[in-house]
Amino acid sequence: xxxxxxxxxxxxxxxxxxPVPEQAERVRLGIIAAEALARVTPWDAREYTVNxxxxxxxxxxxxxxxxxxxxxxxxxxxQLTRSAEEMRSTDYPVTLNTVCEVAAADxxxxxxxxxxxxxxxxxxxxxxxxxxxxxxxCAEEMKAEEASEIA
Length: 151
Description:
globular; disordered N terminus; 151 residues; mainly alpha
């Protein structure tokens, strides 16, 4: 089955989350994570590569939902998104309040991957806030479907 998006991201990412990698490196890591996730999904092989706005929107959008599901029960999509925005911030001084919250929940690597994917999506011209909103709704729907199947 291969390594999923977070596994491939972790393989390529630096051991230390801080200092946060520069934007160009986050874009590269986001593409790695998204393409790794695409390879383990039942898509057409031509759709494994993120190389334009349409492919980024589809593949990275799915990874956003997957990230929200990975952290389910430990951090909310809002916490993850705010933490990722903190990691991406260029404001000085950078405050990492929500990053500390998610670190306590042991999902800081998910946040780092989310930040990288947000940068990658932005690099291709995607509407990142809309993608995150859509991913949150998709994650909620998938959770609800899974809960109804178990019941």
